[in-house]
Amino acid sequence: MSDNQLPLRASLENLRKQAKALHRAFDGGDADAIARIREHLPRADALSNDDVPGFDLSLQEAQHVLGKGYGLASWDELRA
Known about the structure:
mainly alpha, 4 helices
């Protein structure tokens, strides 16, 4: 899965909305969201499809995955 390119004028509010959308999509069973979480969240890399409904993904973890998806080390680095 390839990383996204961060827009030049990305607003923090938009990034927060993206993280919330990723969280909702994962909770809803979206295959792309599940793949992104598996790729960038170490505790979810071995997650089977059967385990997804019971997996407790926090918003903070979704934010972390978003930062990693933009090629950064973390959400904090993305915010900066």
